[in-house]
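Hi R.,

Here are the chain sequences for the assembly we discussed:
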Amino acid sequence: MRKAIALLFCLVAPALWAHEGHDMPGMSMPKGPELGASAAIDGKGRLWVVDAADGHVRLRHSDDFGRTLSAPAAVNAQAEPIYAEGENRPKIAFGSKGELYVSWSQPRAKPWTGFVRFARSTDGGEHFSAPITVHHDRAEITHRFDAMAVDAQGRIVMAWIDKRDLEAATAKHKPYLGAAIYTSVSTDGGVTFSDERKLADETCECCRIAMATTPQGEIAAFYRSIFGDNIRDHAYAVLHADGRPLEAQRATFNDWHIAGCPHHGPGLAIGADGVRHAVWYEAKDKPTIHYGQLEPGKAPVHAQVIATTGASHADVAVSSRQVWVVWNQVNAQGSALMLRESQDGGASFGEARAIAQSKDAVAAPQLLLWQHRAFVAWNTAAGFRLVPTEAL
Amino acid sequence: MIRRALLAVLLMLPLAAQAGAPVALKAEDVPALLKPPAHGVRVLALWGLDCAYCESNLQALMKLQRAHPREIELIAVATDSVQQSVALEQRLHAAGVDTLPSRAYADAMPERINYLIDPDWGGELPRTLIIRADGSRSGISGQLTPAKLATIP
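And here is the predicted structure of the full complex:
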């Protein structure tokens, strides 16, 4: 009888461990830092990288274009939960006087909830202010997928995905698709943020918001929205920091219908001539990355397919007549970082070229410009890489 | 006393067998998962933790499977890492779908598993892959409408 009980325990115990296993000391598999990271190159050519590990947004820098990175410094002294995966990643931007601004989204207790957080350093990253919550609404709901940029006047413009209107509609048993986008501005270098304003209702609830600076020095946003019955095309809006009304206009017209989470936001770069270079993803027939020049309210011009099957997470940059598009291309063996370049302002693009490979997990690539040269920030499970775009 | 303990353990067995943690899905396991069933359809309900539409989709598919138990084999496949099995299992349990056979990705590059399962899928969730006995496959992205559900059996 005892033997029978022992045998039964042997059968049952693994199932019980499987229930709880990963909370048990010594049983969890090692888990490296999540791959959500952002990078920026300052005017002196110093590369700055933010990502998250162990409850801290960590800041590293490099003076040799990513070959070596400094030891990480904690942005938030006190550990807190941080979203750092997929489209939800810490951000970094520079102020007009060399300030470092860092933002991130903090998960709350319930699934999909979050607060948008912000901290700044005025001494080149030596010290950071205690993090503040950007929005004044403190309901335990979604405020996440933060995006941040600094306009020509040094104002910090933030935008994020916010479910307060969905919650209100649901409470009244009214239909509401997706989530809203809210925006807030700091005119005092990130000490305080204005009351948030709604940019748009019924936008996609899980895709990053792309930002770029217009020739007038304002910040523009390009994001996946919802039109009609779950048509998840994109919209464009200038985020006026001076209180003028915000007007979002549909800017892509692929008519991809999906009641689901693409987790796949667009990219935007605006030339000095005002041309709005954009890349975006849809999978109506198969995964497709498009390039086009936005004409908000109308179909984009010079629209062309950049890549299809296996392609994801594109970014775009422009300097004068040169346009770069990068994306991740997966196949059965691993991922490649792909590049296509245009020398004629985006009218046509050269052949696709693999500029880096990875067998480890990769994050979305981010194009960085420095003195008319383009680099790609590519975070991989094997480490952060800064990949030059010039053919060797 | 011993008999009682034995009885208690015996009573626990079916629970442990049904509501287990998701089983790891590695790249080399994908061909077996995609193999056409002997009859009827195998439905892979791909879902993830960060997907507001996934749980209701799983519920709708489970209801359909319960109505056609002989024709439909339904497997919940989480695209999140099997390292998150505790969170995955909690979510399946909360949605009342934890009696389904369940898998979760176990690969250094989740996008590679996406690609191996269906190269014409970019990872958007929920995703329903329908594999029929005749070898044909079809994929549907997004929450299934009643009309689309009706095409499965």
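The radius of gyration of chain A is 22 Å. Chain A has two helices and 27 strands.

Let me know if anything looks off.

Best,
T.
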